[in-house]
Amino acid sequence: MRLTLMAGFGLALLCTTVQAATPASRFIQDPYPSTYRPLASGPVLIEHATVLTGTGERLDDADVLVQDGRIAAVGRGLQAPEGATRVDARGKWVTPGIIDVHSHLGVYPSPGARAHQDGNEMTGSVTANVWAEHSVWPQDPGFHTALAGGITTLQVLPGSANLVGGRGVTLKNVSATTYQGMKFPGAPWGLKMACGENPKRVYGGKGVPPMTRMGNVAGYRAAFIDAAEYLKKNAPKDSEPKKKRWWQRDSGEGQDSSGDSGGKRDLKLDTLAGAIHGDILVHIHCYRADEMATMLDLAKEFGFKVAAFHHGVEAYKLADRLAAEGVCGALWADWWGFKMEAFDGIQENIALVDRPANSCAIVHSDSDEGIQRLNQEAAKVIASARRAGMGDITPEHAIRWLTANPAKALGVAAQTGTLEAGKMGDVVIWNRNPFSVYAQAEQVYIDGARVYDRHDRSRQPVSDFLLGQEVSR
Amino acid sequence: MSRRLLGRLCLLAAAIAASPAMAQNVLIRNATVHTAAAQGTLKNADVLIRDGVIQAVGAGLAAPAGVDVVDAAGKPLTPAFFAGITEIGVEEVSGEQATDDSSVSLGNLQPMRPEFDVTLAYNPASVLVPVARVEGLGFTLLGAGTGASFIAGQGGVIRLDGSADPIGPRALFIRLGGGASGLSGNSRAAQWMLLDQLVAEARGRIPADSPHALLTPAGRATLAKYLAGNGRLVVGVNRAADIRQLLRWADKEKVRIAISGGAEAWKVAPELARARVPVFIDGLAALPSDFDQIGATLENAKRLDAAGVSVGFTQSGDASHNARKIRQHAGNAVANGLPWEQGLAGLTRVPAQALGVDDRLGSIAPGKLADLVLWSGDPLDVINTAEQIWLGGKTMPMRSRQTELRDRYLRDSGALPRAYSR
Question: Label partner for B215 (CA 20 to 30 A): which of A85, A432, B248, B420?
Fold first, then answer.
């Protein structure tokens, strides 16, 4: 009890510090804050492994020391601190925890019951007011199968029925009774938008806008025009010169500038304004190259930045532009053809998006099956690139598609995504080179705690839903 | 008389199609030959192909005159893989109804249409065919999708060599369980009630002119054919309890069945083995995706195999466009305890036997069609790719619409837009 309290206090301090450094605009105040607390864990020294750091390096016969929930050191011949658990990882590979930027776990959980369809608020084409986290069912067994595949962090997004689907949330893949208990402390929200067929099919089919791709773009523009005006009225104070009047109090009601707005809060516009302001990261479901280019123009028109295009089966057609503009491509290894806008998918998409300098290629899942084996999806990319004569992509490079790059797209690269001293102790021990169909995560650590162990049933979480079912594991 | 003549002409046409002019003669030397047959794996072995058929398998075979010699450099050579139960060539773009002929929904016009034969819609020019083929896939079971009835209709085995017609017996597709209960009055119990009635109609116990008849005359004839043992019923079913009912029903009616899906088949493994029912599983099913699959586990294949069940693979996801993913299913089954040889068998011998085409497909042995794949490495591992596929001894081009797109965008863009490069 006391320990928990202390840990909580420490974390609270940490959060306060972070917030003080960058004052949150009112658009991103969080009335549903993270209550996540790392599990208690002693120091762990993983020894004699092949280590892919996520920074592009590969270290053979190397050690990783995790202490106080953080990566303490990576290198050869590290000394085990007193009381450390030593893990003999000879023949094994160690990587940062795997990160999926596109998941619907919890919002489209298993079992796929009608009552569980919580991912698309298909009541209007712009629902920036909804937050995916309010749909997350923490008992989705998919979180645990993903964990067995090495997933330590994931972004849960609303679906793609809407032009603007709502806010996505970044979770640590830990077991909790509430989603707040999984919420990645300090991670920015994502804003889910969607191009192309889905919104126009869903709404055009009902005879309401949008019915066409031009209707889609008109819809985004109308929403952002409203948001720009709202932002002007409600600009966060930290970005404006102080205009303190004699009748105002010294320190404001924190960051809430509603007193200046003269109007009530609008949840929809809060989110869009937060995106323009750069506090909420924009993730766009977009398949075709031409539509991605249109969205980049839209982003310029309204002054927001696109963090990543998701699915982008045609991203290879504008790989250079994505790299030049610092936009990530969160992509599948091999999906194609299931609808018209996916007809030009190729298996070298990720490798081609990865090819230019300063690129940001990401392997994502959008699937409760794919998220269990993103390492295999990456292996397929390596294999296809080799066959296409694009050369041998090294494991130390490819691992970035699953770790450092998604961390960047989610705005959590300072905390996780690489094995660098000071970062969260999010680590996977694989039984072999992870880029193989035979690779299995043997141990998964989140913030230094062993939350999954293939060979230790006491470290294999089971959802409440599966408890008592006739499941043999 | 004229019918007989037509038959002879057809035979002649078939003979021309299989003549040496069309099918190459090839000697593949120095391969690690995974025969998927009694011979197992042969190292440093050769395979001689004459007239599109495997003539000899062994070490140090002599190269007859006029035979192309391929040095495999020790790489794995396997039978061309089974693509799973797919809609390759009967759907081009899943989301575009006019390109998808995989299922029938006749609604009020007697929805029960076992006579529906999806292979009649097969388009060998579909871009899905080469996309699958360059990945080492040589044949598929075209499946009838579930439309307005849980009796979906017929499909058949198609070789992915560009030929237009199915080979071997047809299969009749049936879907049981919760996912299809909306097609049987909202209860899976009624699926057995309706099946009993259909069987009674097909066997003539219910008169054809009965006002209660569910089948058309053609439907009765079709179902009667399967009840007489010609062709298999491929039953999509996941829940163990439903599989038990199915085994009981198949035993009673003496029909030959195979199961597709079978997420909980491992719970009924001894019964399946005893009844010699092959099971096509999804090798990646690990989640309780619905209430029929609460017991889904990655060890399904391992447990079924250990009990003596023939395990094949098929996909519940995007089985057609992404048919190539089927290797990953077998590989994951192996990673979760299935012996490697059985993983290979699940993509070769097992489906060929289950579908009645093992006289031609599914193994490397003299007399079998030369449908072969040379791989860059272990073919069950996704880190490897198919380097060359031969179908009927023909060296198939390793090109598809996707490799064309790839190559267009791999090149630096020139002075002209990419539309001018090919």
Answer: B248
CATH number at residue A325: 3.20.20.140
Q: How far is B328 from chain A (nearest CA, A)?
A: 7
In this structure, is the dihedral angle defined by the CA atoms of residues A271, A272, A276 and A281, taken in order, positive or negative? positive
DSSP state for residue A461 in the 8-state scheme = -
User: What's CA A116's distance to the chain center, in Å?
Assistant: 22
B144 and B226 belong to one structural domain: yes
Residues B36 and B97 in one domain: no
- Three-point CA angle A277, A282, A287, nearest 5°: 150
Chain B contacts of A388, Cβ < 8 Å? 403, 406-407, 410
Q: Is the peptide bond before A210 cis (omega within 30 degrees of 0)?
A: yes
A66 CB contacts (<8 Å, ≥6 apart)? A41, A43, A44, A45, A46, A72, A425, A427, A445, A448
What ipTM goes with this model? 0.93
Domain assignment of residue B15, given as a range? 1-80+362-422
Convert the pLDDT of each residue in A169-222 to its tens digit.
999 999 999 999 999 999 999 999 999 999 999 999 899 999 999 999 999 999
A246 contact B CB<8A: no
The number of domains in chain A is 1
Torsion of CA A38, A43, A47, A52, to 10 degrees: 30
How far, in Å, CA of A413 to CA of A322, rounded? 19
Question: For residues A204 and A219, is the Cβ–Cβ distance under 8 A?
Answer: no
Task: Give the whole-number percent of chain A exceeding pLDDT 90.
Answer: 86
> How many helices (H) and strands (E) are present in chain A, helices listed first?
12, 16
Residue A363 three-state SS: strand
A30 CB-contact burial (10 Å; exposed 0-12 / middle 13-18 / buried 19+) = middle
What pLDDT digit, counting tens, does each position of A104-132 carry?
999 999 999 999 999 999 999 999 999 99
Domain span at residue A448 reads: 2-242+251-458
* Same domain for B18 and B151: no
Q: Do residues A296 and A327 make contact, with C-beta atoms less than 8 angstroms apart?
A: yes
In a domain, A463, yes or no: no
The reply to whether A472 falls in a domain is: no
Note whether residue A412 is domain-resident: yes
Distance CA B268, CA B266 (A): 5
- Closest-CA distance, A337 to chain B, in angstroms, reads 5
pLDDT of residue A246: 52
DSSP element (H, E) containing A377: helix A374-387
Same domain for B125 and B188: yes
Identify the domain boundary among B359, B384, B400: B359
Under an 8 A CB cutoff, do B406 and A348 touch? yes
CA A436 from chain centre, in angstroms, equals 24
What span, in angstroms and rounded, lies between the C-alpha atoms of A266 and A269?
5
Contact state of A334 with B383 under an 8 Å Cβ cutoff: no
Which of B178, B179, B189 minimizes the C-alpha distance to B145?
A: B179
Which of B358, B318, B373 has its CA nearest to residue B137?
A: B373
Residue A72 falls within a domain, yes or no? Answer: yes
Rounded Cα distance between B135 and B81, Å, is 9
CATH number at B218 reads 3.20.20.140
What is the model's pTM?
0.92
Q: How far is CA A339 from the centre of its chain?
A: 25
| Number of other residues whose CB lies within 10 A of the CB of residue B250 | 16
In chain B the first and final C-alpha atoms are separated, in Å, by 52
Considering B334, B359, B384, which residue would you say is the last residue of a domain?
Answer: B359
Report the residue of chain B nearest A376, measured CA to CA.
Answer: B382
| Whether the Cβ atoms of residue B338 and residue B371 lie closer than 8 Å to each other | no
Question: Are B18 and B392 contacting, i.e. CB atoms less than 8 angstroms apart?
Answer: yes
B6 with B130, same domain: the answer is: no
* Two tokens, residue B190: 């009624």
Domain count, chain B: 2
CATH number at B417 reads 2.30.40.10
